[in-house]
Amino acid sequence: METISFVERASRLGQGSSESALSDRQWLRRWIDPKVIVVGSGVVALVMIACRVYQQVYAWTAGIDSTSPEFQAYWMRLLYALFAIEAIAAAASWGAVWMTRPRDFSKLTTAEELRRFGRFVAIIFCYVFAVFWAGSFFAEQDASWHQTVVRDTSFTPSHIILFYFSFPVYIILGITAYLYGMTRLPRFAARHSLPWVIAVAGPFMLLPVVAYNEWAHSFWILEERFTAPVHYWFTFFAWSGFGLGGLLLQACDYLYELVTGKPQTFVGTGGPKEDPALEFEREVA
Amino acid sequence: MAAGGQLPLRREPAASTAEEVQEIYRWFDLVIAVLLVFLFMALYHIYTMLTVGDWDFWTDWKDNRWWITLTPFLEMPMPAAALYIFWSRFRLPIAGTLLAVSLVLATWLNRYVNMHGWAYFPLNFVWPATLIPCGIVLDCTLALTQSYLLTGIVGGFAWGIIFYLANWPLITPFLQPTDLHGVMASLADLQGYHYIRTGTPEYLRIINRGTLRTFGQEPVYLSLALAGFASVLTYGIGLFIGWAFTKTQFAWFKRV
Amino acid sequence: MEHRKRAMSAGGMIAALAAVIGAILGAAGSAAAHGERAQEPSLRMLTVQFYDTKWSTDKVPVNGEITVSGRFHVMKNWPLEIYEPGLAYLNVAVPGPVFVRVASSIGEVNGFASVKLELGQEYEYKLVLKGRLPGRYHVHPMLDVQDVGPIVGPGKWVTVEAAPAQARFVDPVTTLTGHTVDLASYGLGWVIKYHLVWLALGLAWLVYWIRKPMLMPRYEAVQSGEADQLITRGDRLAALVVLGASLMVAFGGLAIADSMFPLTIPLQSDWTRAKPLPESSAEISVEPLAATYLVPGRSMQFKLLVTNNSHEAVKLGEFTTANLRFINSAVEAADSAYPAELIAPGGLVIKAGGDEIAPGQTKEVYFEATSPIWETDRLASLVRDPTNRVGGLLMFYDSAGKRSVVEFSHEIIPTFTGPLANAY
Description:
The complex is a heterotrimer of chains A (about 280), B (about 260) and C (about 425).
Chain A: H1 2-13, H2 34-62, H3 69-99, H4 110-146, H5 157-184, H6 186-190, E1 192-193, H7 194-204, H8 206-217, H9 232-238, H10 243-260, H11 276-280
Helix pairs in contact in A: 2-4, 2-5, 3-5, 4-5, 5-7, 7-10
Chain B: H1 18-57, H2 67-74, H3 77-90, H4 95-116, H5 123-126, H6 132-145, H7 148-171, E1 177-180, E2 183-186, H8 187-194, H9 219-247, E3 252-253
Antiparallel strand pairs in B: 1-2
Chain C: H1 12-25, H2 41-46, E1 48-55, E2 59-61, E3 65-74, E4 87-93, E5 99-106, E6 109-110, E7 114-116, E8 122-131, E9 135-145, E10 149-152, E11 156-161, E12 172-174, E13 180-182, H3 188-211, H4 216-223, H5 233-260, E14 271-273, E15 284-294, E16 299-308, E17 314-321, E18 324-327, E19 343-345, E20 348-352, E21 356-357, E22 362-370, H6 373-376, E23 389-398, E24 403-411, E25 413-415
Parallel strand pairs in C: 2-11, 7-14, 15-25, 18-19
Antiparallel strand pairs in C: 1-3, 3-8, 4-7, 4-9, 5-6, 5-8, 9-10, 9-11, 12-13, 15-16, 16-22, 17-18, 17-21, 17-23, 20-22, 23-24
Helix pairs in contact in C: 3-5
């Protein structure tokens, strides 16, 4: 029964540990806080659907001539409003995470650390959910718009939502998640994880790529072919999402160590003898 | 038992029973599984739309030379990278199918809500291709051979071939000939002509405009041969990228 | 409010939501241009000039047809900073496929083709459009020119009416094998069913693995060196079954499709040369001498040397550029069917050089083209562009009404204080 053996083995790891000080252990069943996931993703979904509905109403009626007064009224004003909302949201979320940070890791219990780790994963979930709206939903919508109309501004009804709203939203969430890990979890406070930095900074780089894209479209790419080389930088930075693959492995090690109290060993994959994080995370305690 | 058992306890374990360990792990599994679907909907979709998007958007781009060659081999590296991570660390042969299913969900959502619901194109003009058969072939080859090399050679080549086998039936009904006022056009061409795309003129199409008939007078065979071999190559590139990302597991640094 | 009603099933929920929110937020305006106003004046005034544009009607029912036709002139003095035209494609600037194009021609070539255009030539074009989605839309003929971009012709409002009896759009096409299909929905059922089969197979494979302990327990096993035990006989069997089923579906699907549609053709491509109209302008030649834009008066002023080599005296009747028409009302009646916002009746005034050029005569002509449309159509903004050159077509008429169309272009200097006439 090969399938069972590793499950059983995993089960045995938890046994023999001392009685936890925790009285209420119910939260362990859902240690990645579902409320954060549902509320965070729900807000993202609602905001994005609202944007989509706004496009449905005003894109064709007020959005095809950037020189017209109605374009100024319905689209440029929206753009400025979105910039303001983004600034406020960024300041609020980054500020809240930073201002409420615990100053002392020395009294951190394992249970509390697991709880924080769960919240960290939940915020990353919301980040990934926002990346989906930007990288998939509104990105391909951009094709449906620009292959259908004459391009006449960088601030088209699809660009305003895609580049200047859905991109900033996931950037805000990514940095929020990063700050949360940095201020709440000892090992992410002691060191920067390279894959995690890639997973936040890479998608952020799509915004600078927008500048290149618009620069090119303004004078030598006049038609819309989605596979045009001018778009390749977006593709390049899409790969940075694989940083979450590296982070997943780090997360698995972390989770194993938190749950079992044992250090990860990497016997089967030829890694270091012991998880290096166990060494350096003590620095902050 | 792993060697870790002899090492001193790091700290008090968070779980106190075997059941708790299982529950904690299971919840992690499920949350990450959903997260991965959204992640790959984003990553694989943006990657696909910017490498072969135009062929995927419109029936009048789905030709017998470029579409069936470029789509499989350009869309190979990302599943291959995920395949390396999932297989080397989890022994899960699901990466190809997971990415393909995520992609097809993302593309259909977009075609329906945006291409159709916003830009008013009929759905029968903007349906996407499917990479699911490619993903299944790759994953199943991996599960059966348990070898990166054999998966690359056999599964990678099959990935390139089965894209045509599985997607050609989708375009076939649209390749019937019609007479467009003295010019022969397929129904797919006619869709592109009827349903006006202001920003995408006809000459932008990259479709078969060949001049030499080789390989049994049938460009499909040539396209298939290249798709298969090139997929093997890009599988290797993707595998390498996946390997590189697993190496970041121990990359922690002190200052940014 | 130019609110498009939609006769389509899709996006129904979004449309309903949009309608609610639209009603709450109030009416949006209507856009009369399709982005051409953002293009630099040098592109609009020096490359392709549309003229004689006609719309057969301004109201069509769903499934009703409208013809847009006319001519365009490809400027001989094509600006060197803009790529010379490669291929061009006759298109329509409408807000999405609210019409379908059922027929078109460009220079006697079927408009299905992309064509090569020659500099300095005139071409005739025709577009037959069929109303698809009810609403009121601005319809422009348009020329997509490779490496240059879309060059948009004049636009006119056209209403697509939802005739109660026949509101459902149909797009019947008869294939060469004798089948008539509705291209608006043809083949969609097959595509969806086929996709669902593959989705089911893919999900089956994924569910098989997700049911098992997935990430953490397997990761632990791999890290402790037990990776080889993780793939069981059962797993391999499942792989074999799914693989076999996939191959069966793939080959079976192909066989079914082949038997259903034994006769198929590859996608068709027709790149060819359009045939220009016979040259008509050789008899009159124009040499521009000076051009200025009088900023306070919204007036472009031109000094030209005109030579009439024909046998009839001719008069300058019209100056047209970038779809704007300045009419010399002494010679030409204003075209009431042309969009009023693009026409300046009486906007062309001959200030010096007389109205008539006799046969064989060479004469300096000084005229003004004055109208606020220079501003509203954003051509006057050229003073902020790197290329300050204007151009357009001049229409000369003889007493029998025979027209000669002559292009010209020249550098322009803005005048911020007084008219060119002061210096003349």
